[in-house]
Amino acid sequence: FRNWNQNHVLLALLILPLLLVALAQAITGRANANWAVPIYIGASVLVAATMINRKTWLKAAIMSQLVLATVMYHFDDVVSTVDASIDAHQDPFKRNRGWDDFGKEAKRIMEESGVTMAVGNDRGILSYLAYYADVKPENLFSTGVPEQPKSQFDLIHSLHKKPEAKGPFLLFLSQEPTEQEEELFSRIELQQQISI
Fold first, then answer.
1. Residues of 147-163 as b/e, b for ≥16 C-beta within 10 angstroms?
2. Which of 1, 35, 83, 93 has its CA 20 to 30 A from that of 8?
3. Are 110 and 133 in contact (CB under 8 A)?
């Protein structure tokens, strides 16, 4: 901090409130990583400006980042190589595991049934259907109410806003359908349960 000028201080003061908000969200609830993106941008500039005259620290930072990125990219290989066992609490990728299998299974079910339109009650499920099952946006619908949106899917792809959308639909739910969700369909049949 000794070599900081007023530009460094100004940038730090712009970052600090965002950092405090992101920390408070992380402590009190479940914060998403993308909420801190504005902090990364400013902090990257600040760190680079601070380290530009400290070549040893700069080299050490770049090397540690390369090592850490390589280890994280090959996390499963590293764990199996060192013969370590990890549980769900130690796995940094636990939130992403299983969704590729879910997508493959959902795609298989959609292809076998010939149904191209998918409906979900959860932002995560809809996102993974779009990514892993390759469901096109025009064939992806939410059961959410646009007046009380919980995600972008409720605003843009809600079945409540698309009365012209006619089934059949494949309904992917994270829990039992609510009465409000059941009213959207003439009938609901359980086809298969996909466990993640």
1. eeeebebbeebbbebee
2. 35
3. yes
- Give per-residue pLDDT as tens, 99-133: 888 889 899 888 988 888 888 888 888 999 999 88
Which residues make Cβ contacts (< 8 Å) with residue 50, sequence separation at least 6? 3, 4, 8
Q: Given the structure tokens 């972008």, which residue do they identify?
A: 152
**Cis peptide leading into residue 168 (ω within 30°):** yes
Residue of 96, 107, 102, 98 whose CA lies nearest to 133: 107
